[in-house]
Give the backbone structure.
Amino acid sequence: MPHRLSHALRCSAWLAFGLLCAAVAAYAFSFLYGQPQADNPLHAKFAASGLDVPAHFFGGGLALLLAPLQMSARVRRRVPRLHRLAGGLYAGAVLLAGLAGLSMTLHAQGGAPTGIAFGLLAVAWLLTTGLGIGHALAGNLHSHQRWMWRSIALTASAVTLRLILGIGLGVLQLPFPTVYLAAAWGCWLFNLALCEVMLRWPRPSVAHALGAG
């Protein structure tokens, strides 16, 4: 009975994570086809930035859709070819979105403080993904999995960013510049810190919870 309950909790966590990723990915893709809102400060900055914005949104949206699939232990065991194919697509999506994100920092809402935060996020995202792929090619699957967990934690920063904005603006009614600056730093530092705790937790590791799908 405890084993069944634990499995149900792991599957629920994986499903909830997948739904959040899908929701933010849907927003990213819808932005590619929608019209920017003239009264939205973020949309105004996006319009000034240029083609790096659609590249970032497309790559980030694709990475978000693939992240839950890549975390699934069942897929890794039963369909390893799908895991490798999706992993290649995920790495390509991160490369596209990460490089575009670096370019977007030049026009970041809030100036240098938020631009530096998003720039560091983009560098960390590219670095962790590159290390993860490198370890996979070298056959070091344990290190590969750990670095890809970090990469996915940074991919999920898009989810955390919107949660912080929603709470700060919608619930707490705080000023936009304050909330956006907090979100720019908090979305990825929080995710990385949580990921490190999960990776270092005594076995059975909490880091396996989301990989139950």
User: Anything to note?
Assistant: The longest helix spans residues 2-33. The mean pLDDT is 88. The radius of gyration is 17 Å. DSSP finds nine helices and no strands in the chain.
